[in-house]
Inverse folding.
């Protein structure tokens, strides 16, 4: 078989249906809503509004959140149709493998893998930093060597990050239904903390803090500030907040009645997240002049204390720390299902695609956890942060274009889904263009590192994946 035929060879959707049939379908709409909200509405809702307002947008940060939500919403419609038509583990990797071919599926999946490795490590480190900040006033203080990543401020290992990532992996290894119950409870607590902030903070809002709503444009050391240029810079920075709905799709092989469950979970969680993000942004900016949030790692706590509510600030921040577990659970579940999919198809060693006696992909789960621990606990990795957005946007572009190939096969070798992306063929094109525009707005380093990650993925495919691919071996028979 020629090289071109090999890389464009498409997997039969029935093969994935059969391979994933051993995964237990236990997740309901409420579980996916909790999974989506828990992953999307993570630590960023308590930090990004103030940070972006001070760096780029001023009070217009709410517009940046809305524009980023529109881009995410366009892609979410495509995700909902794909997940309803093809409820397979691995989300974009498996879908693109079916509609475009093996190599393109690998590129999309490899791009998403960067998101899960790095985002999991970042949230683990973020949880560690916030938990240590809460414990220090109580007299519990770890030595510097156990508080920071290797080579960072005298650190050797971030012990708390290591423990929490391993703890979440252990919880998920016991079964997704058990993890879902913990996720549901923690999401309720986190949303409760956000609502508490909104109710208390709205009475401290001052109209003068919104004027001018869109400051005049100027260039700063951080890039564009004010005007539509600043709002655009804010969109690229904020978009990271909305990428969590991929974590829902990655678990679609474990969904009850995925035809209805997946669209409701994906679109519903994104809608809830948008409302919460915009509301927090407006109240936060209304409470204090946006310039005072510069270099603040905890703008919500700062605003509440300044308004005379230190107890509420402590309560909100404490719940926010425990709420970070929801993002860890969502990303760990999704990332492990993606790695399982690679192993299932022979693109990575086959043991990663094996299920245990209870039909759980725990080999993939523990590999993900160990790599995330290495990144988060031992390596300084701040220069890789924007790879999360860059990798995910690449996958989003593939999924948006994939709708055109999917429509030609729905009702034939792929079931006709109960949900379809509206305004076809316009919206898929808009989803692709919008994702490309946001990708273009990332800084040069982010695009450079995305290129390096892409080259590494191509090398792994050519030297291992193409030679061991189950699909290629089947075609050669």
């Amino acid at each position: 078989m020629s090289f071109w035929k090999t890389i464009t060879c498409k997997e039969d959707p029935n093969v994935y249906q059969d391979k994933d049939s051993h995964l237990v379908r236990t997740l309901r709409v409420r579980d996916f809503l909790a999974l989506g909200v828990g992953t999307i509405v993570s630590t960023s809702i308590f930090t990004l509004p103030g940070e972006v307002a001070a760096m780029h947008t001023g009070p217009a940060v709410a517009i940046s959140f809305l524009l980023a939500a529109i881009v995410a919403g366009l892609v979410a419609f495509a995700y909902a149709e794909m997940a309803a038509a093809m409820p397979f583990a691995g989300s974009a990797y498996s879908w693109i493998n079916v509609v475009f071919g093996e190599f393109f599926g690998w590129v999309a999946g490899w791009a998403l893998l960067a998101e899960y490795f790095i985002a999991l490590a970042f949230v683990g480190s973020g949880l560690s930093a916030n938990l240590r900040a809460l414990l220090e006033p109580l007299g519990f203080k770890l030595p510097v060597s156990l508080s920071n990543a290797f080579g960072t401020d005298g650190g050797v290992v971030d012990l708390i990050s290591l423990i929490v990532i391993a703890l979440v992996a252990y919880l998920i290894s016991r079964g997704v239904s058990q993890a879902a119950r913990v996720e549901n409870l923690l999401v309720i607590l986190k949303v409760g903390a956000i609502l508490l902030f909104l109710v208390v903070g709205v009475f401290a809002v001052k109209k003068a803090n919104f004027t001018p709503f869109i400051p005049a444009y100027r260039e700063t050391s951080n890039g564009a500030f004010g005007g539509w240029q600043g709002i655009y810079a804010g969109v690229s920075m904020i978009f990271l907040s909305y990428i969590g709905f991929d974590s829902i799709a990655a678990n679609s092989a474990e969904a009850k009645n995925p035809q209805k469950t997946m669209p409701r979970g994906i679109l519903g969680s994104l809608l809830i997240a948008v409302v919460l993000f915009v509301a927090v942004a407006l109240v936060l900016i209304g409470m204090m002049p946006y310039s005072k949030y510069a270099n603040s790692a905890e703008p919500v706590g700062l605003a509440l204390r300044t308004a005379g509510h230190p107890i509420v600030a402590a309560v909100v921040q404490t719940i926010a720390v425990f709420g970070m577990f929801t993002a860890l659970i969502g990303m760990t579940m999704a990332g492990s299902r993606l790695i399982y999919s690679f192993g299932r198809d022979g693109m990575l060693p086959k043991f990663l695609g094996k299920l245990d006696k209870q039909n759980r992909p725990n080999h993939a789960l523990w590999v993900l956890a160990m790599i995330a621990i290495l990144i988060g606990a031992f390596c300084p990795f701040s220069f890789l942060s924007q790879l999360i957005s860059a990798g995910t946007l690449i996958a989003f572009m593939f999924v948006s274009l994939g709708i055109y190939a999917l429509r030609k096969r729905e009702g034939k070798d792929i079931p006709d889904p109960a949900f379809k992306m509206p305004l076809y063929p316009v919206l898929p094109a808009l989803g692709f263009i919008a994702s490309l525009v946001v990708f273009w707005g990332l800084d040069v380093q982010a695009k450079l590192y995305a290129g390096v990650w892409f080259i590494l993925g191509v090398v792994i495919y050519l030297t291992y994946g193409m030679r061991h691919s189950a699909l290629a071996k089947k075609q050669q028979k």
Notes: The chain has a mean pLDDT of 85. Residues 25-471 form a domain with the Amino acid/polyamine transporter I fold (CATH 1.20.1740.10). The CA atoms of residues 58 and 263 lie 35 Å apart.
